[in-house]
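tool=predict chain=A
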Amino acid sequence: MASVFDTTTAVTSLGEGRYGAELDPGWVVGGGVNGGYLLAVVGNALRVELPDKPDPLALSAYYLSASVPGPAEVQVDVRRSGGSVSTASAELSQGGEARIAALATYGDLGRGADDVRTTAVPFDLPPLEQCVPNTMAPEEVRKIAPLMERFDMRFHPEHVGWALGAPTGVAEMAAWFRLEDGREPDPISLLLVVDALPPVTFNTQGMGWAPTLELTAHVRAKPAPGWLRVRHVSRNVAGGMFEEDCEVWDSTDRLVAQSRQLARLPR
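tool=predict ok
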């Protein structure tokens, strides 16, 4: 049986680079459909259009208007098809209104998979049994974020003050992560993961919807099976906006995805 993630991010070819999708209400957060989920939908359309380059390497998306559950269409335009990478643009629309404009580079993460030279060090996260499950989130959070039912997340116990009415004042959020039905991670699901945690501003500005303006994701490797570790941090709030940097590590302590997004403060 297909996983919920695969079923709800599936696309159907309509010909000439057009793909149909059905945005699922289970991925709603705040005033719209989650941006990471939308990236995964767009990512699937790009993957089908670029069959010899199966993996997203870099994807930058601009969020033009809030998406809503229901039918959507993704138009893919291949800009360059090379030997090892291809680049394409994609636009997700609903009812003729553009929701997301994206540019992506795709390739094969299996090539050079063992070539790793890094100074990056995994962040500290207590063992699963010492972390706080998302099932303990306050009712008001679960109401505005139905997508929390799609994940099994175990938060760092020092990062959940926002859920207890005592925000930490530090713009950091980290958690163990896996999809609700145990589906193993892959490059497409990492496009979701980089935007799955609550905004770090929950611990500094209070709870509320923080709409994404732009998000760039880099997928660095195919993740190994098992739990992922995800951390978001922010250093700068200015003009009613903040940046959020994300890193995702797999069960073998490999850095498999990174992202940065610019978002508006919660409202």
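The first strand starts at residue 11 and ends at 15. The chain is about 10% helix and 40% strand.
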